[in-house]
Predict the structure.
Amino acid sequence: MPLAIVILAAGQGKRMRSHLPKVLQPLAGRPLLAHVVATARRLQPAAIHIVYGHGGEQVRAALPDPDLRWVLQAEQLGTGHALQQVMPAIPPEHTVLVLYGDVPLVRAETLAALVARAGPTTLALLSAVLPDPAGYGRVIRDRGGRVVRIVEHRDANRKELAVAEVNTGLLAAPAAALGRWLSGLGCDNAQREYYLTDCIGTAVREGWVVEAIVAVSAAEVLGVNDRIQLAEVEAAWRRARALELMQAGVTLVDPGRVDVRGTVSCGQDVVLDVDVILAGEVRLGDRVRIGPHCLLADCTLGADTEVRANCVIEGASAEERCQIGPFARLRPGTRLAAGVHIGNFVEVKNSVLGPDSKANHLSYVGDADLGARVNVGAGTVTCNYDGANKHRTTIGAGAFIGSGTMLVAPVTVGDEATIGAGSTITHPAPAGKLTLERSRQQTIEGWRRPQKKPK
Ligand code: UD1
Ligand code: CA
């Protein structure tokens, strides 16, 4: 049977106490809802429907993918009411899988098992056994262990509250039956809402089998209702990514202190020190070492490259054997060839540095093309901006730029040229020669320091 996935994402999430709609709260830097959509896609469904409401256009704008089908739930009258809004759009012969926009860690394998279990007279729901089930709906079974209904926390009596098996909210059932059960829902409960969970009781009364699949890991089904749970989900995500890295041959000095907020591919014997954040698309070659407190976003580092403490690297690449930092900043468009050294308080932007070039201290290299073996002295600045436009600086192979040089772009320094310290270079500096621009030093004879006036 073709699969239709419905993601419920209309709720406000009052308990977050935020202006941002709950399903847009970030997990690993991406909205909760984006995680659920990504997992849904892995099942290759015929359609993904998202029920939205609170936060309206803001939610839609956060996920512009053209294939998502949006259904407005103008008033949030409960999870059952939410699903009702989308049923007319789903052909009766489809299997419906219901996901929640605030349950982001569920794995595609688990969902596939759930869908496989649903059948012509079987509703499959995902449950979990939690050490602290507070807040969740409880799965009530009869003496024979058969699921008979779900009771919400707020509607549960003392005996029911003691049940540790909770409803994750995720379920799969044939569309035709689901539509029938939903149309019979009432709202006679503590929250005056139309509960999707009441469909379970109805299905049982109709003689259906309700199969509760117990999730293997409780972390997978954590729901996010407040910022405490958001932090717990983030921690679970971090932990899972850390385990993946270690399984792939990466040493993590402290697995609890690495944040993966994107996709990372690593060679062997990579070492990540504490408090490293990896965002976007990061590729690290064999034996890359990253020092403590570094942010690496959308970057590629070649084998044996070392990044020392406190560096920020975004949209940059370095080939093998580079040394970066401590305290270096590589901005988008930076390309370092093999063996380049970028030292402390050096900023590089939209520049290419040839093999074995060095800028070891306190420099700004922006919109520049450097050949091989260039030495950039401390305090050198490429003056790339004239207040209106950006201009490039070109430095030939083997050039030596003395400390404190201002290179006013557009400007060219020839191969093997030497620039005297403190120069402001505005004209081409020819290859192989010493060029300097400096007023003559003078010493004033007979000069005296001013004295304090006597009181
Ligand atoms: C729900 C379940 C509960 C389960 C828990 C698991 C019901 C009645 N209860 O409770 O059994 O243990 O999830 O996390 O289903 N939503 C809408 N429209 C609405 C109301 C909610 O789209 O009118 C969406 C929310 O955006 C959210 C999801 O449905 O993504 C769940 O809603 P929420 O209010 O968080 O339900 P819970 O009280 O957590
Ligand atoms: Ca919830």
Summary: Helices lie at 32-41, 56-62, 79-86, 108-117, 158-161, 175-183, 198-205, 227-247. The chain has a mean pLDDT of 96. The chain has two domains: 3-221, 240-435. The chain is about 15% helix and 35% strand.
